[in-house]
Amino acid sequence: MWVATVIPKPVPPVLSVLTSSRNPKQNSFHFRFSYRPLNLKVSATKQQQQLPEPKADKKNPSSSDLGWLPAFPHVLIASMSNFLFGYHIGVMNGPIVSVAKELGFEGNSTLEGLVVSIFIAGAFLGSVASGSLVDKLGCRRTFQLDTVPLILGALVSAQAHSLDEILWGRFLVGLGIGVNTVLVPIYISEVAPTKYRGSLGTLCQIGTCLGIIASLFLDIPSETDPHWWRTILYIASAPGFILALGMQFAVESPRWLCKVGRLDDAKTVIRNIWGSSEVETAIQGFQSVIKNNGVNVGSRWLELLEEPHSRVAFIGGALFVLQQFAGINGVLYFSSLTFKDVGITSSSLASLFVGLANFAGALCAVYLMDKEGRQKLLIGSYLGMAVSMFLIACAIGFPVDEELSNNLSILGTLMYIFTFAIGAGPVTGLIIPELSSAKMRGKIMGFSFSVHWVCNFLVGLLFLDLVEIFGVAPVYTGFGSVSLLAAIYAKYFLVETKGRSLEEIEMSLNPNFSVRDK
């Protein structure tokens, strides 16, 4: 899900109150269609990490499989948050010069970078706060509450007449995005049917890609109209209103409803989006988790230091460290220069090519996520990213023919973005809530994304200095090496979660659960 941003020097990091009804019957779409514990030691054996194989699907393979459809509208509404994320990633890249000129800090690259990167400070704080919000309010109400900073931030930015105002606007937007990046994977993982959880979860990545592409198209007039930036920031407030209204009709997470004692509402949601045959089995699983894990008593941040939550928090943080230090920020930042070498001088056109490669990879992930599984997709993704990085490094470091070298650089860049969008982007955000316990899911996700934003900032901050000191080829070789390390990590420290309910995964990975008859 997690696309980094392209931003200008010298700090190039980076890549929303309504109340909900307590009765899901009134505000939901209706469709009718007839390991053991994870071991973090390098010497961990495959047997220790292996979950039982999921039961085979006994449905007639020739029949139309529409089991994903009842949950799709709700997931689609949630993915509007990712569209906003992608939109705000790209919306300031083009018109930043016009903003600086109109607000009086033109030529000050530090302040220009600050206008873009203040977004990350807000996102970090939003990520930290999100876990507690979703535990107390549930997903729907948190989504609606989060539209307040998203809408206000966009409007404040659009009406800004000083540096302070644009900074406050961007900070508020970042605050909302920080909450949403945590909230969307949790919501989708808890609402989507087990069989389609991976494919529906990939809508996060697709939403982000579409948001980036939309912002790039809307940025085009900013090249000739110095005041166009206000218009596109006003437009940024519209998806927030759509999200707030749409969530009024979306279902609440049945797991959260069960946790807070709204058992009848939970059954109604399950019946509407998973089917009547799943109600009893799902409720039994939810209640088993509550009984064994004490979910109803709430959670504390210090519990992240306790087993088994500390292991999953470590895995989540490590996955985002590897994702960011595999170089997605740097590649996106440097891609415009790579395209210029082959005659594509328009930065918007270059970014559009990158956005289309990203979107194509996300579409492939929709098909592959539940077919091949998370672990295999993540390994293949990082291997593809490593090959792409080494290809670009060789093309730059050992140029035989200038035209051939430039073409190989373009190929490597598009391959990198494509393979990132297949696995490293969507899988990282999806697998962490799947491995997390129900009790600590919100806080583990909040911690993991806080690590994401810190690493996002550091890579963006250091990338240009590293290129200046060592050159592009050595830096890209380093990115490729980290990608290889990430593939190895995914091979030996992750388990496959495809085809298993969140409760089955938690019972298998948590040694505190009592042994049950199968």
UniProtKB/TrEMBL annotation:
<keyword id="KW-0472">Membrane</keyword>
<dbReference type="InterPro" id="IPR005829">
    <property type="entry name" value="Sugar_transporter_CS"/>
</dbReference>
<dbReference type="InterPro" id="IPR045263">
    <property type="entry name" value="GLUT"/>
</dbReference>
<feature type="transmembrane region" description="Helical">
    <location>
        <begin position="312"/>
        <end position="335"/>
    </location>
</feature>
<feature type="transmembrane region" description="Helical">
    <location>
        <begin position="377"/>
        <end position="398"/>
    </location>
</feature>
<feature type="transmembrane region" description="Helical">
    <location>
        <begin position="444"/>
        <end position="463"/>
    </location>
</feature>
<feature type="transmembrane region" description="Helical">
    <location>
        <begin position="410"/>
        <end position="432"/>
    </location>
</feature>
<dbReference type="InterPro" id="IPR003663">
    <property type="entry name" value="Sugar/inositol_transpt"/>
</dbReference>
<protein>
    <recommendedName>
        <fullName>Major facilitator superfamily (MFS) profile domain-containing protein</fullName>
    </recommendedName>
</protein>
<dbReference type="InterPro" id="IPR036259">
    <property type="entry name" value="MFS_trans_sf"/>
</dbReference>
<dbReference type="GO" id="GO:0016020">
    <property type="term" value="C:membrane"/>
</dbReference>
<feature type="transmembrane region" description="Helical">
    <location>
        <begin position="200"/>
        <end position="220"/>
    </location>
</feature>
<dbReference type="GO" id="GO:0015149">
    <property type="term" value="F:hexose transmembrane transporter activity"/>
</dbReference>
<feature type="transmembrane region" description="Helical">
    <location>
        <begin position="167"/>
        <end position="188"/>
    </location>
</feature>
<feature type="transmembrane region" description="Helical">
    <location>
        <begin position="469"/>
        <end position="490"/>
    </location>
</feature>
<keyword id="KW-0813">Transport</keyword>
<dbReference type="InterPro" id="IPR020846">
    <property type="entry name" value="MFS_dom"/>
</dbReference>
<feature type="transmembrane region" description="Helical">
    <location>
        <begin position="110"/>
        <end position="131"/>
    </location>
</feature>
<keyword id="KW-0812">Transmembrane</keyword>
<feature type="transmembrane region" description="Helical">
    <location>
        <begin position="347"/>
        <end position="368"/>
    </location>
</feature>
<comment type="similarity">
    <text>Belongs to the major facilitator superfamily. Sugar transporter (TC 2.A.1.1) family.</text>
</comment>
<dbReference type="InterPro" id="IPR005828">
    <property type="entry name" value="MFS_sugar_transport-like"/>
</dbReference>
<feature type="transmembrane region" description="Helical">
    <location>
        <begin position="68"/>
        <end position="90"/>
    </location>
</feature>
<keyword id="KW-1133">Transmembrane helix</keyword>
<feature type="transmembrane region" description="Helical">
    <location>
        <begin position="232"/>
        <end position="251"/>
    </location>
</feature>
<feature type="domain" description="Major facilitator superfamily (MFS) profile">
    <location>
        <begin position="74"/>
        <end position="498"/>
    </location>
</feature>
<dbReference type="Pfam" id="PF00083">
    <property type="entry name" value="Sugar_tr"/>
</dbReference>
